[in-house]
């Protein structure tokens, strides 16, 4: 359950709009269902009152939207940033993707977002209403008389279980208290996979990646994927279309996409959130982050503006490629 | 006569300034290395995009090796340092996805090391041959 309420955010946004500090507000808008909250740009207080929402399904990270909108909109844009969003925000600033002067960032606390697939698995399909209560999410479905209560711990999205930080690294104004960087076991799953034999790993990834329908949602939502011309739009890239499942395309797509964001990925987990097939894409990114931390020193993309990403940097004493496999696991 | 035994196909990306000259020297010195090693000359080892490697596997390569100048000797001062980081990351990722790690390699071969070039290729071809055909990164549409 989120600590702050929708009213607090609307009040803040409305006052900044009325004072003329900002000319537009990025917020979450009610979708078709209670759980498919959509990112939207609000320009009037009436719109805010009517459609702005804040709750356990407001996972969307607005950082990437600023790239396009700061160029189009005159005046400042108010953006609400959860702690993990601020890392993406900083990373985009590092890459000079938008003008900091055109953004008014308000940091808001986040208690972790719910994953609708998990909620559906626990409460069943046909969700018509979800209430946040003390015990958990009270889910009303078409087929149940009484609401089913799903505890927050069970509904928490994968990426939020291992939240890396409750600290805002960029903001103009902060609602709530400053949090801390957390010690999370976010590499535990990666380590588990690494400990498997190559055959098991291949089976795991073949199984996961063959679910991919190549909708490109992971690319479109990724705050690190801001190239205006993407390599995957190239008809001869070898990964532009959807081939029959279990073939080379998906592997190519996901390896290359993970590689392109390696060292710049802030581990916000948006890729996994939007994946309609629930592929654990964050495990690919976390593998790169883990490797970079191990071999090139601890690095958190977006922790500070202007830091140099590890893959555009080098030292003369770097590890040789043949040595990175030395992990003492059972790869024979 | 058709021989059924399939030989491994190896793609070697060689940098123009060191490894390609090294391959030349191996040839001049009449050092034998497998004919299935297909050399692609690149201006610098850091020209090799990870996509080149995956595409080589897609189109039927059984092993990919990248050869560049020794670290510190790059014609462009720092190209191979970037290669070293990129390839370390990429190969580690391929290993993570369960692709046999012996199929990929980075080797530093200078223009004077014809013997090392031949030895490296012989060794690599042998290792790849032992693994057999590349099944995990193949693209059936590219097979004839």
Question: What would you note in describing this structure?
Answer:
- The complex is a heterodimer of chains A (332) and B (144).
- Chain A is an alpha/beta fold.
- Chain A has 13 helices and 9 strands.
- Chain B is α/β, with parallel strands linked by helices and 144 residues long.
- In chain B, α1 crosses α4.
- Chain B is globular.
- Chain A binds chain B through residues 190, 193-194, 198-206, 231, 237-238, 243, 247-249, 251-252, 255-256, 258-259, 262, 284, 287-288, 291-292, 295-296, 310-316, 318-325, 331, and chain B through 50-51, 54-55, 57-58, 71-72, 78, 81-82, 84-101, 105-106, 136-141.
Largest sheet of chain A: 6 strands, mixed
Distance separating the two termini of chain B = 19 Å
Whole-number tally of structural domains of chain A: 3
Structure summary, number of beta strands of chain A:
9
Average pLDDT of chain A, rounded to a whole number, is 89
Strand order in the sheet with the most strands of chain B: 2-1-3-4
The portion of residues forming beta strands of chain A comes to 5-15%
In angstroms, what is the radius of gyration of chain A?
Answer: 21 Å
Low-confidence stretches of chain B: none
Number of alpha- plus pi-helical segments of chain A: 13
Beta-strand share of residues of chain B: 15-25%
The chain-level structural class of chain B is: alpha/beta
Using the alpha-carbon principal axes, give the shape of chain B: globular
- Level-2 CATH architecture of chain B: 3-Layer(aba) Sandwich
Essential attributes:
heterodimer; A: 332 residues; alpha/beta; 3 domains; six-stranded mixed beta sheet; three-stranded antiparallel beta sheet; 13 helices; 12% strand; globular; disordered C terminus; B: 144 residues; Rossmann fold; four-stranded parallel beta sheet; 4 strands; 16% strand
What is the element layout, followed by pairings?
The complex is a heterodimer of chains A (332) and B (144).
Chain A: H1 6-19, E1 24-29, E2 38-42, H2 45-51, E3 52-53, H3 63-72, E4 77-81, H4 83-94, E5 103-107, H5 116-123, E6 127-132, E7 136-141, E8 148-151, H6 152-155, H7 158-161, E9 173-174, H8 188-195, H9 198-209, H10 217-221, H11 248-261, H12 270-274, H13 282-296
Parallel strand pairs in A: 1-4, 4-5, 5-9
Antiparallel strand pairs in A: 1-2, 1-3, 6-7, 7-8
Chain B: E1 10-15, H1 19-28, E2 37-42, H2 50-58, E3 63-68, H3 79-96, E4 104-108, H4 114-131
Parallel strand pairs in B: 1-2, 1-3, 3-4
Helix pairs in contact in B: 1-4
């Amino acid at each position: 359950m989120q600590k702050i309420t929708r009213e607090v955010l609307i009040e803040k946004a409305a006052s900044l709009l009325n004072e003329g500090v900002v000319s537009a507000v990025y917020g979450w808008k009610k979708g078709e269902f209670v759980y498919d909250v959509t990112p939207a740009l609000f320009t009037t207080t009436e719109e805010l009152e009517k459609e702005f929402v804040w709750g356990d399904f407001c996972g969307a990270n607005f950082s990437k939207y600023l790239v396009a909108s700061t160029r189009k909109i005159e005046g400042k844009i108010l953006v609400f940033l959860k702690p993990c969003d601020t890392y993406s925000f900083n990373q985009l600033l590092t890459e000079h993707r938008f003008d900091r002067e055109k953004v008014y960032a308000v940091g808001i606390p986040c208690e972790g977002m719910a994953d609708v697939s998990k909620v559906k698995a626990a409460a069943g399909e046909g969700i018509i209403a979800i209430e946040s209560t003390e015990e958990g999410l009270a889910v009303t479905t078409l087929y149940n008389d009484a609401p089913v209560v799903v505890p927050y711990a069970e509904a928490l999205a994968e990426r939020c279980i291992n939240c890396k930080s409750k600290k805002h690294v960029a903001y103009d104004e902060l609602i709530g208290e400053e949090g801390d960087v957390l010690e999370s076991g976010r590499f535990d799953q990666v380590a588990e996979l690494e400990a498997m034999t190559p055959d098991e790993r291949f089976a795991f990834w073949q199984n996961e990646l063959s679910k991919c329908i190549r909708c490109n949602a992971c690319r479109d939502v990724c705050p690190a994927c801001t190239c205006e011309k993407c390599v995957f739009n190239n008809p001869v890239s070898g990964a532009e279309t959807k081939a029959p499942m279990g073939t080379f395309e998906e592997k190519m797509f996901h390896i290359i996409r993970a590689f392109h964001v390696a060292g710049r990925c802030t581990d916000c987990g948006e890729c996994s959130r939007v994946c309609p097939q629930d592929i654990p894409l964050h495990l690919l990114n976390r593998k790169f982050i883990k490797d970079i931390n191990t071999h090139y020193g601890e690095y958190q993309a977006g922790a500070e503006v202007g830091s140099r990403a590890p893959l555009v940097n080098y030292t003369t004493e770097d590890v040789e490629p043949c040595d990175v496999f030395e992990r003492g696991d059972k790869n024979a | 006569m058709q021989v059924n035994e399939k030989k491994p196909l190896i793609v070697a990306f060689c940098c123009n300034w060191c490894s390609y000259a090294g391959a030349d020297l191996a040839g001049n010195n009449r050092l034998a290395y497998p004919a299935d090693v297909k050399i692609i000359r690149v201006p610098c080892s850091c020209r090799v995009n990870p996509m080149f490697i995956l595409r080589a596997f897609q189109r039927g390569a059984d092993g990919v090796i990248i050869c560049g100048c020794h670290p510190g000797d790059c014609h462009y001062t720092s190209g191979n340092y970037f290669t070293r980081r990129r390839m370390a990351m990429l190969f580690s990722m391929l290993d993570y996805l369960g692709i046999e790690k012996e199929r990929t390699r980075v080797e530093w071969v200078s223009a004077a090391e014809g013997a090392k070039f031949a030895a490296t290729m012989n060794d690599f071809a042998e290792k790849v041959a032992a693994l057999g055909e590349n099944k995990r990164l193949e693209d059936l549409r590219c097979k004839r």
